[in-house]
Design a protein that fits this description.
heterodimer; A: six-stranded mixed sheet; B: mainly beta; seven-stranded mixed sheet; globular
Chain lengths: ~110, ~120
């Protein structure tokens, strides 16, 4: 299986901060990397697909970049509704479409 | 509007069988994959497997192969996840999701989740 490692596992940030989450794959996955947001008690929500494509309806403060093994999710100006857990997922080799362990973004 | 509506929470005993469902609406059900994802309490997401309703092509994660069965009834736009003999370790939230037909099988729409509790 392709292993996905996110960093950090958690972070504290203030409203308005720029936040960056990284995801590293154990082998090259081209651009087959997706990002999801999950709030407590809710289903995950797709934010970014194919490394850098913003899903319809997702605010433009979210962006993704990277290819190969190293990827980044950036929130340009953190909003109160962005406090959540973020997961990356590789879909280069499925099954399984391995998820990262998650990054929890908390209020400072 | 694309919707995936899952069946309600279940409480079962070890050794019992269970089948949970995921009904799609608002899109052409037969032309998108349906996938299942497990989330155990307080932990991350695990990709279990996917099924293509058009031809019932099914693919399992090695971790779940032989542990669960994924099926579909395209006549009623519904996919299923079933267990023949539950274990306490199957206690988790289970999500279904819609995946596009292309090579990048991300989940663009998710069901609300079905909580399965297995306890004696």
């Amino acid at each position: 299986d392709v292993q996905m490692t996110q960093s950090p596992s958690s972070l504290s940030a203030s409203v308005g901060d720029r936040v960056t989450i990284t995801c590293r794959a154990s082998q090259s996955i081209n651009s087959n990397l997706n990002w999801y947001q999950q709030k407590p008690g809710k289903a995950p929500k797709l934010l970014i697909y194919a490394a850098s494509n913003l899903q319809s309806g997702v605010p433009s403060r979210f962006s993704g970049s990277g290819s190969g093994t190293d990827f980044t999710l950036t929130i340009s100006s953190l909003q109160p509704e962005d406090f959540a857990t973020y997961y990356c997922q590789q879909t280069y080799i499925t099954p399984p479409g391995t998820f990262g362990q998650g990054t929890k973004v908390e209020i400072k | 509007e694309v919707q995936l509506v899952q069946s309600g929470a279940e409480v079962k005993k070890p050794g019992e069988s269970l089948k949970i469902s995921c009904k799609g609406s608002g899109y052409s059900f037969s032309t998108y994959w349906i996938g299942w994802v497990r989330q155990m309490s307080g932990t991350g997401l695990e990709w279990m497997g996917i099924i293509y309703p058009g031809d019932s092509d099914t693919r399992y994660s090695p971790s779940f192969q032989g542990q669960v069965t994924i099926s579909v009834d395209k006549s009623i736009n519904t996919a299923y996840l079933q267990w023949s003999s539950l274990k306490a370790s199957d206690t988790a939230m289970y999500y279904c999701g819609r995946l596009p037909r292309g090579s990048n099988k991300y989940i663009d729409y998710w069901g609300q989740g079905t909580l399965v509790t297995v306890s004696s």
